[in-house]
Amino acid sequence: MELKASMKSGDKVRLATLRLLSAAVKNREVELLHELDDSEFQQVAVKEAKRRGEAIEAYESAGREDLAAREREEREILAPYLPEQLSEEEIDALVDEAVGATGASAPSDLGKVMGFVMGRAKGKVDGAAVQARVRARLGA
Prior knowledge:
Blueprint lengths: L1 H8 L2 H21 L5 H24 L3 H14 L9 H15 L7 H12 L5 H12 L2
Helix pairs in contact: 1-2, 2-3, 2-4, 3-4, 5-6, 6-7
């Protein structure tokens, strides 16, 4: 539906992004041997958005702002397909819960806490942001 609208409107970036998402979904369906449910679809969309984020960093470090801008635009196009992100307060509460549940008290417990948080958040948080919060909490 959106592909057709993008074709008619002539929005080439949107069309290309939606085609890439569609191909990624199709590939995942072939891997799993069934149609994706909503959470599986969101996982694919999160992975595609993460790829865009990595590309943005690479292009910016190489001084290619034009390519970074296109990747930002593609990430914005993918945004409606992503799960709603947790707020700062929700992330802090989740980190507190993880520290309490795992008994973490030292920087060496980072992996246990990260596993707990990322398992509960399921694509609703940026791993790097969580890691920074956990490191600060554990005094690393």
